[in-house]
Amino acid sequence: MISRFTYFKPHNLNEAVQYLEKEENAFVLAGGTDLMILLRRNLINAEHILDIKALPEMDLFNFVDGAGLTIGASVVVNRVVDSEVVSAKYPALHQAAASLASFQLRNRATVVGNICNASPGADLPPALLVYDAVVNITGPQGTRQVPLNEFFTGVKRTVLQRGELVVSVQLPEPGAGDKSVYLRQARLRGHDLATVGIACRLKPDGKVAIGIGAVAPTPKRLFALEDKINERGISKETIEWAAQEIREHIHPITDVRSSAQYRLQIASVLLKRGLLSLIGKEE
Amino acid sequence: MDKECSMYKEHVESGKRKVTLSLTVNGRHVVRDVDPNMTLLHFLRDNLKLIGTKEACGEGECGACTIIMNGKAVTSCIILAVEAEGAQITTVEGLAKDGKLSILQEEFISQDALQCGFCTPGFLMSTRALLDNNPNPTDEEIIEALSGNLCRCTGYIPILKAVKRTIERERKESGF
Fold first, then answer.
1. Which residue, of A117, A142, A171, is where some domain finishes?
2. Where would I find the H helices in chain A?
3. Which of A156, A210, B6, B138 has an alpha carbon within 20 to 30 A of A45's alpha carbon?
4. B101 to chain A nearest CA, in Å?
5. Do A38 and A77 lie in a common domain?
């Protein structure tokens, strides 16, 4: 049915890196919920599959006071959904994770896979972006850290070089009183990518962060909009203004899921709804 | 060089060599040689002849191929057989015991929770995984756990009823 490939499941990270460096057409397998679709539709010709699920580094999922949250590359989305510390400290991430695909897929799909697949409409990146997530990468040249905001380079493209693997994604600890929310609009629940997905965060110092998906070639932090909102100071009036202003900061396209015009409109609605909920106001 | 590393070397040298897979399916230990590119679904259906698990969309969207792997409901059409090395798997064939249908299966029948039946094995396995982890779920939790299973003829109300009656009967049977 699908490409004929060799399958390699190392227990040692160095072996994994060496394999990826050496082999042409090698693909990384974690949950497989994106990779298997590409294979089954014959969209890629894989000669080698590297399964990372036996690498101990990839299974790390912990929260350390002061250091924050680390999510290893083989941690599945439902582990994040079920995590009390994520619900308490990173509500937008919990909500984004709980809205991703369907229950069975969340038992396989990984958080890091959702990043590495680099879909413009992926659910988790907007939530991870508002927490200033950092991607831990290892490769032939050693390890490096890339802010998630600089990780995506285009539709389905990332900064990863040949031989490089993402080991984990790391989120700094939010201060006490930090609030966040993830809202998504989709044509139907459970079986569709988001038409627009937006994460809003209100930090204890009153500053906001906004991450958005499906309105540009990559998921984005809207830094320029955040600065303008923060200059004005968060209030119901500022939010009304921001809901119009966001149209100047995103560049959606028309595709099978939605027209560009609808995306502009729904982004405006979701931003307003999200920010209002964070300051405890109704529409 | 550990075992898997030498295994990989043999693959390269011998072309696409089969991989020896060892796992437990419905309580039975199974060892087979499989192609690395075979899906777990096809392994169950073609190699083990467990044809209760169905393939519909083939892309993890519809849930017809749902099985329980290491306690979790997963779509077997987008998992490679080789990924199931060492796994504990339950398919729909593992629900009935000693020729007698399980309570869950009986309630799907009593509530007319199926018509064509193609989605039913998937619904049964998603429900079983839910109730094994959470014997007393809320309606919302049931709906969430079944969110990845599509039914195109019966609709979901009889299925929900069957699940709720199963919960009642299993609770009585376990003495709570």
1. A171
2. 13-22, 35-40, 77-81, 84-89, 91-98, 103-106, 111-116, 124-130, 148-151, 223-232, 236-245, 260-278
3. B6
4. 24
5. no
Number of A:B CB contacts under 8 A?
A: 102
Q: What is the ipTM of this complex?
A: 0.92
B144/A36 Cβ within 8 A: no
Domain boundary, last residue among A171, A200, A235: A171
Query: CB-based contact (8 Å) between B64 and chain A?
Result: no
- A147 plus A235 within the same structural domain: no
What token pair was written down for B41? 């679904």
Do A76 and A158 fall into the same domain? yes
Tokens standing for residue B52: 């209760």
Residues spanned by the domain of A28: 6-51
CATH number at residue A209: 3.30.390.50
Of B19, B61, B85, the CB nearest to A191: B61
Q: How far is B134 from chain A (nearest CA, A)?
A: 13
Is the same domain home to A100 and A124?
yes
**How many structural domains are present in chain A?**
3
A201 contacts A131 by C-beta, under 8 angstroms: yes
Domains observed in chain B: 16-92 (3.10.20.30), 103-173 (1.10.150.120)
What strands lie across the sheet with B28-34, from one edge to the other? B28-34, B19-25, B88-90, B66-69, B72-75
Q: What is the full per-residue pLDDT of chain A (283 aa) written as tens digits?
A: 567 899 999 999 999 999 999 998 999 999 999 999 999 888 998 999 999 999 999 999 999 999 999 999 999 999 999 999 999 999 999 999 999 999 999 999 999 999 999 999 999 999 999 999 999 999 999 999 999 999 999 999 999 999 999 999 999 999 999 999 999 998 876 667 888 999 999 999 999 999 999 999 999 999 999 999 999 999 999 999 999 999 999 999 898 889 999 999 999 999 999 999 999 987 7
Pairing of strands A134-139, A165-171: antiparallel
Distance (Å, rounded) from C-alpha A223 to C-alpha A74?
A: 30
Q: Based on the fold, state whether residues A106 and A147 are members of the same structural domain.
A: yes
Query: A19 and A82 share a domain?
Result: no
B117 in contact with chain A, both atoms CB, cutoff 8 A:
no
